[in-house]
Design goal:
Blueprint (H helix, E strand, L loop, with lengths): L3 E4 L3 H9 L2 E6 L5 H12 L3 E9 L2 E7 L2 E7 L2 E8 L12
Antiparallel strand pairs: 1-2, 2-6, 3-6, 4-5
Length: 96
Amino acid sequence: MSILIKPIITEKATKDSEVFNRYAFVVNKKANKLEIKGAVESAYGVAVKSVRTLIQPAERKTKYTKKGLVSGLTSGYKKAIVQLAEGESIDFYNNL
């Protein structure tokens, strides 16, 4: 079971990482906070201070088009916000 799926790199997440030293990840829905902490520490070699999690629900969308009513669904996911210890940082862009 892979715990970390991918990092979230948005404007809000980037600002959080620069100002508050918090990083956001999409994680496995069955992972708990201790597993997420261990996965981040082993993957990036940093000390994790705290972990907060939330579940983004699936979102249903409906559009009215020439073809008629089109409905779609975006899948739900679990998000983890990881607070790192003072002086620690993660560089997502070093392997580009």
